[in-house]
């Protein structure tokens, strides 16, 4: 069977661990709130009404791409594109191509940033591998102007950050929704986690300090994983309704190994 992502790929390691996935979406949730096209996510009402549900819906699509056959992964990508096309038809105009690229770029950036925070620095070859997986996703979605390599992507990513991010009423409202659905304590943890993985410009726009309360906690968390005690920390931080879905990411990885 041909897989979209090789079974020994670093991408499977990144997306096969629940804590890494949580940090990917912690970072992306911050950057999403600043994106100039975030109004598209408000059009259906699904994001503000259930930001956690939206997160896990996206995780589910990512899992289908990373852990399934090439045919099934392509099918998942095509469905994703069809869903967005349906939203475009309802609204009467197209989502800008740069907005699609921004989302793809977030997945690339935070896959690397989250893994390096919790595990180790990736080699140049591994970063290229991460980029190539999502590049192929973008090609399948018929996105334009995608750089062919990781190194060529880096300045393009920086340009997108400079051009496509701003604080707005959507930014404020989305963070209020995060707090509403997570609760005050978990929301505080989200903010501190975001500080650890977002780029400098995102910190500046959200008025984040450089210091995160989680900085001294990360080494302790790594030790807790070695001692198989990380479940205790997750049980304190994750809403009960979503614990099974998060833990399911770890189970998925074990089944594929």
From TrEMBL:
Name assigned to this protein: DUF2236 domain-containing protein
Organism name: Lacibacter luteus
Cited InterPro entries: MPAB/Lcp_cat_dom (IPR018713)
Domain of life: Bacteria
Molecular function in Gene Ontology: oxidoreductase activity
Start and end residues of each ER-bound oxygenase mpaB/mpaB'/Rubber oxygenase catalytic domain: 45-198
Biological classification of the source: Bacteria, Pseudomonadati, Bacteroidota, Chitinophagia, Chitinophagales
Stored Pfam families: MPAB_Lcp_cat (PF09995)
């Amino acid at each position: 069977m041909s897989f979209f992502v090789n079974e020994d790929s670093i991408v499977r390691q990144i997306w096969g661990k629940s804590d890494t996935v949580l940090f990917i979406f912690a970072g992306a949730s911050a950057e999403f709130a600043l994106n100039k096209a975030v109004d598209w996510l408000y059009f259906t009402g699904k994001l503000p009404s259930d930001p956690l549900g939206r997160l896990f819906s996206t995780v589910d699509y990512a899992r289908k791409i990373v852990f399934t056959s090439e045919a099934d992964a392509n099918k998942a990508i095509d469905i994703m594109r069809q869903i967005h096309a349906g939203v475009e038809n309802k609204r009467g105009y197209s989502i800008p191509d740069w907005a699609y690229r921004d989302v793809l770029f977030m997945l690339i950036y935070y896959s690397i940033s989250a893994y390096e925070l919790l595990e180790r620095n990736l080699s140049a070859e591994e970063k290229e591998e991460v980029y190539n997986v999502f590049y192929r996703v973008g090609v399948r979605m018929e996105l334009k102007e995608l750089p062919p390599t990781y190194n060529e992507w880096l300045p393009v990513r920086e340009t997108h950050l400079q051009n496509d991010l701003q604080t707005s009423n959507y930014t404020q409202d989305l963070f209020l929704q995060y707090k509403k659905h997570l609760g005050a304590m978990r929301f505080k943890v989200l903010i501190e986690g975001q500080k650890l993985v977002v780029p400098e410009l995102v910190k500046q726009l959200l008025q984040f300090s450089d210091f995160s309360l989680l900085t001294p906690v990360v080494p302790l968390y790594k030790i807790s994983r070695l001692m198989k005690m990380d479940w205790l920390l997750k049980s304190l931080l994750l809403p009960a309704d979503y614990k099974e879905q998060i833990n399911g990411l770890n189970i998925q990885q074990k089944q594929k190994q």
